[in-house]
Amino acid sequence: MSAIGATRGENVTADSVNALLENGRILTTPVLRSVVARLAPPMDTVASYHFGWIDQAGLPAEGDGGKAVRPALALLSAQAAGAPAEAGVPGAVAVELVHNFSLLHDDLMDGDEQRRHRHTVWKVHGPSQAILVGDALLALANELLLEQGTAEAGRATRRLTSATRKLIDGQAQDISFEHRERVTVAECLEMEGNKTGALLACASSIGAVLGGASEADADALEEYGYHLGLAFQAIDDLLGIWGDPETTGKQTWSDLRQRKKSLPVVAALAAGGPASERLGELLLADAKNPENDAFSEEEFALRAALIEEAGGREWTSEEARRQYATAIAALDKMDMPDEIQRKLVGLADFVVVRNK
Amino acid sequence: MSAIGATRGENVTADSVNALLENGRILTTPVLRSVVARLAPPMDTVASYHFGWIDQAGLPAEGDGGKAVRPALALLSAQAAGAPAEAGVPGAVAVELVHNFSLLHDDLMDGDEQRRHRHTVWKVHGPSQAILVGDALLALANELLLEQGTAEAGRATRRLTSATRKLIDGQAQDISFEHRERVTVAECLEMEGNKTGALLACASSIGAVLGGASEADADALEEYGYHLGLAFQAIDDLLGIWGDPETTGKQTWSDLRQRKKSLPVVAALAAGGPASERLGELLLADAKNPENDAFSEEEFALRAALIEEAGGREWTSEEARRQYATAIAALDKMDMPDEIQRKLVGLADFVVVRNK
């Protein structure tokens, strides 16, 4: 994906980003597994399936547990505050638990049948287990943080709770957008800030909070994470329309099929001009016809072409670039070791320069 | 309900229990309303419907918000610790939020269409809103407590989180029992302790924790609330089979229709003897026939009679009495004003001597 041009992490190679992600996984996965094992059966099994540790038959698996960007950010944030990476581990695991709570519930609400190239939990174990295990992961996140018993853990829990509330607000907004004819660019950005920005903000600061950072430093890291989340989401919205199904694991025109009012769409509709107006007419007609499974590839291709012609694709690319720049600039508000700052820039580059 | 014989709260009249409950409502409802108003639309509306503040059309209503025993307990527990009732308000509201989170999700999982004589949220606003608003209430509970910013609030949040985890474990156990042929009395009691006891334990101690009580005193109050919860649930299980539909608002033989493996059923099955064996055969045959809507009243009446004949009704009444006695005895482990102890006994009487 070349949505972002030159990035600032020239000194951090792809290899070292992979090492950061891998290190995050190594430090956090054993803790994640041990807290998931606290769940009453069959929730422990259902959660293990969700995390890719076992397959549908209950046999050990090496599933795709996701990119694990959030744990890596949480550990780096501890180091940014001068603490060892290990200080961030409970925060990293708590954020992963909240993230996966939201995946379990959102997949059910959205009717998504696939995640990480496997059937979703509600599809395999039924809606009740998806609800219950999601609830349990959310409660576990708070349990894990609060049992640290420190004032820092209390502050971290408060920030995580605030992020969780925003995450839920964002999902509520996303669902309400489906029933609306028009959504403004500002509303879309607010929704994406809640749904994606807030938890990435928390991931990027929670380790620092646990490591004893000042509120001002934690806020600077939150700002980095929030705008990184918005950059991430802008790229995600581009991939949702123009991504390669082979690498994204989703269908072609995935977001158009789901009629998502994502950034490229709302930006194109707001742009004005002939392509924007034609797109508006088509989407309005589509909305009156709730079943679009019968749409041909050509019909999706036409909508995608109109979004691009109206400038929605270019605007979203620029938006990703703007959010990336704001994220990187926020790092200068905090005094941190140069090496850690370079790594945070490197992770930001990884998040925005991607094709899946 | 005369399941419990003589109780100890002779000095607390029904009027003064009603005053306790009403006082709890007066102190907590404004705070509950103000935190619910923080939710993004349409979650604020959906939650207001759930709490009975508005009707399906969105017009103001004076709905039945439930007995409000938990808020009253939370405020009394603050007073037990020598603090003013007001000190317990954030705890009372947080417990109510968690309780209602579980109602929203459980009604959806259980397919229950009615609650407090009104349609349930998932039935009116759809499953997604029931999931989302439940999630939001859970997060709000932690938010409200943690924003108090005190060490006591941190301890209270930790106890509330522990209770929430047990609540979820209990619901998971309850669901798993539906798919099993036999459940032991011990398993049933464990499930009910998780599903009902844990949150009542938290309600009975959270005000004290916020009011600065020692861990030992908070534990004594938790013990009172836990066993009170088990007594409450035993009565609930009796009403679920033999309650008067006019007062309970449920169908006749409600729990038998839902094939719940409640205490009277598992106790009857464990008792042995001809009635117990006949009941076991019938329930086993029922389990092979998943649709029992066609069952006649006589068939339910036969099952209820066999449960009673096998001793399930009497055992459950005795169990309620035992749990009540254990709850009351726990109060002597803490040094508290006599007047408050009398009120806690009075509330316990109210909880176990009821017909709906």
Automatic annotation (TrEMBL), chains A, B:
PANTHER family: (2E,6E)-FARNESYL DIPHOSPHATE SYNTHASE (PTHR12001:SF71), GERANYLGERANYL PYROPHOSPHATE SYNTHASE (PTHR12001). Belongs to the FPP/GGPP synthase family. This is Geranylgeranyl diphosphate synthase, type I. Gene3D superfamilies: Farnesyl Diphosphate Synthase. It comes from the Bacteria. The keyword RNA-binding does not apply. It holds the Pfam family polyprenyl_synt. GO terms for biological process: isoprenoid biosynthetic process. InterPro entries: Isoprenoid_synthase_dom_sf (IPR008949), Polyprenyl_synt (IPR000092), Polyprenyl_synt_CS (IPR033749). The keyword Magnesium applies. Keywords: Magnesium, Metal-binding, Transferase. One of its GO terms (molecular function) is metal ion binding.
